[in-house]
Amino acid sequence: MINFYLRIFLTSIVLTIFMAGNTYAYKIPQGARPDSLKVKAKVSTKITDTRINKPAYLKNGVKVNFIPFKPAKDNFFGNTKIMGAPKSVDNDRVLNNVKVYPNPISDQLNLSFSMSKDANVIVKIMDVLGNEITTLLSERVAAGDQTKPFVIASRITSGFYFIRVSVGSEIITKRISVL
Question: How confident is the chain (179 residues) per 10-residue block, as mean pLDDT?
Fold first, then answer.
């Protein structure tokens, strides 16, 4: 019985080798193909957007509109102007260098900032939802560097809060954690 299966196995191997070696006989020669003289046009299946102002997309799929840079023309001489770097906006600001320390806070909070001119300053503590917890300072402050200490031990419980310092239309927010 084993000899029978062995013969079938060996016969299939020999036939496979024989058929694989003689495949050249079954190939159709190049000249015999009826459409071999015709040149086929290359067909592209890729769809491209040919619009002039097409939107640009980043690799992650975010749509980005790029505005091309066009230098300004000088009307008098007809040459292009080279635009300089924008001027610093710190000169226009009234409130600068706001620092809250120590952070995390246990019982006392120190707030330091510099003012470019006299203005009304409002300092509030806000919770993470934006609700006002308490107002620490609401008064007119002179120009220059200021350091204000505030005792907050009895005012708020432990957690994360925000200190909002506002002068006119300028608002600076700092995050604090209370122990």
Answer: 81 77 54 55 67 66 65 58 52 86 89 92 92 91 91 84 92 91
Length of the chain, please?
Answer: 179
Specify the pLDDT at position 74.
Answer: 57
The two structure tokens encoding residue 45: 């299946």
Distance CA 164, CA 171 (A): 7
Whether residue 132 contacts residue 118, with contact meaning beta carbons closer than 8 Å, is answered with: no
Q: What's the whole-number average pLDDT of the chain?
A: 77
The torsion angles phi and psi of 106, rounded to 5 degrees, stand at -105, -55
CA 68/CA 142 separation, integer angstroms: 46
The answer to whether the beta carbons of residues 113 and 98 sit under 8 Å apart is yes
The overall longest dimension of the chain from CA atoms, in Å, is 110
The answer as to CATH 3.40.640.10 being correct for domain 93-178 is no
Q: What is the structure's pLDDT at 15?
A: 76
Buried b (16+ CB within 10 A) or exposed e, 134-159: eebeeeebeeeeeeeebebeeeeeee
Q: Which residue has the tokens 């505005």?
A: 67
Q: Which pair of structure tokens corresponds to residue 17?
A: 């080798």
